[in-house]
Amino acid sequence: MQAATAARKPARRWRRWLIAGAVVAAYPAFVLIVVYSQFFAAGLPGGRNGPADAYRHTLASAVVAYTTSPRIVDWVTRVMERDGQGNRSRAMDAHNNRIGARIGRDADSWQAMNLSVRDAVRAGAIDATGNQQITWLPPGDWQDRLY
Questions:
Q1: What SS3 class is residue 52?
Q2: Rounded to an integer, what distance in angstroms lies between the CA atom of residue 46 and that of residue 71?
Q3: Rounded to the nearest 5 degrees, what angle is found at the Cα of 36, between the Cα atoms of 32 and 37?
């Protein structure tokens, strides 16, 4: 009987790891679905380097900070955007990620978070440098892309 119990334990561990892996993989899918459903509905120009790109980064960061922690946004920004170093596009994305993380951290509700992101993008500007203002690049740098 002990041999049968011991044989089942590795199978249970394997299932636990599989379930944990599925949960970890599901979270990025959740964020992408939420962000892109809002992104397409917003109808903003400048899918890359423009207002739409700024909206996408700000919203994704707000969602992650709201549902998990702003620390994860900081880590992803350091890794994916090289903490804003290297070019203007990365600097823009890192800037907007930080604003999104603050919005998500401070939001009282999902709806409030979404409204705050939209308001922040409406108040954004080309080459904004303030810590509270969303930024994007000039129209000549925009690309019609979804990422």
A1: helix
A2: 28
A3: 115
pLDDT tens by residue, 23-75: 888 999 999 999 999 999 999 999 999 999 999 999 999 999 999 999 999 99
Residue type at position 94: A
Joined together, the tokens standing for residue 107 give 């939001």
For residues 76, 77, 82 and 84, what is the CA-based torsion angle, rounded to 10 degrees? 170
Q: Which of 147, 120, 119 is nearest to 134 (CA)?
A: 120
pTM of the predicted structure, to 2 decimals: 0.86
Residues 117-147 pLDDT 10s? 999 999 999 999 899 999 999 999 999 887 7
Q: Tokens 């739409």 label which residue?
A: 52
Q: What is the CA radius of gyration of the chain?
A: 19
Q: Specify the 3-state DSSP secondary structure of 45.
A: coil
